[in-house]
Amino acid sequence: MTFGPSRVPAFVLVVEDEMVLRRRAVGMVEDAGYTPLEALDTDEALAILSSRSDIALVCADIQLPGSIDGIGLAHTVRRRWPAIDLILMSEKLNPPSIDLPPCSEFYGKPLQAWQIKAGIRRMIGHARGA
Q1: What keyword terms does UniProt attach to this protein (predicted)?
Q2: Residues linked to residue 85 through DSSP beta bridges, in sequence order
């Protein structure tokens, strides 16, 4: 696949500790037309974010292992990398009970593929396959 000058591939960092859910989210990212990267916990996610400048969006579970949880990761991303979009997911929590950072979106689990793909495309602003 080739990209024109305004069509650079966008990378989406999926942060999910449960393998089946991570694989499903990775598939949704690919179906939306973007390139997924994977992290199993918040420490690995922060290491990836610190080493790359091409991540457009972080898609993370709220309940994650690591030195901080998914909400802490989201607030760190918003503070250190304000241009990176954020999608947060949870099956146990809902938006009124959590402190979402500005300009982030929340999706309850089980994830609806069409909803996640549309959210990714809307947040990043252009899809390779769109």
Answers
A1: Phosphoprotein
A2: 57
pTM (2 d.p.):
0.85
Domains and CATH numbers, the chain: 11-124 (3.40.50.2300)
Give 65's pLDDT tier (boundaries 50, 70, 90). very high
Residue whose tokens read 């990836």: 48
Instruction: In whole angstroms, give the CA distance from residue 39 to residue 120.
Output: 18
- Helix-strand-coil split of the chain, %, nearest 5: 40, 20, 40
Chain segment 40-55, per-residue pLDDT in tens? 999 999 999 999 999 9
List the beta strands (DSSP E) in 16-118.
35-39, 55-61, 85-90, 104-108
Residue 129 above 70 pLDDT? no
Give the span between the Cα atoms of 91 and 52, in whole angstroms.
29
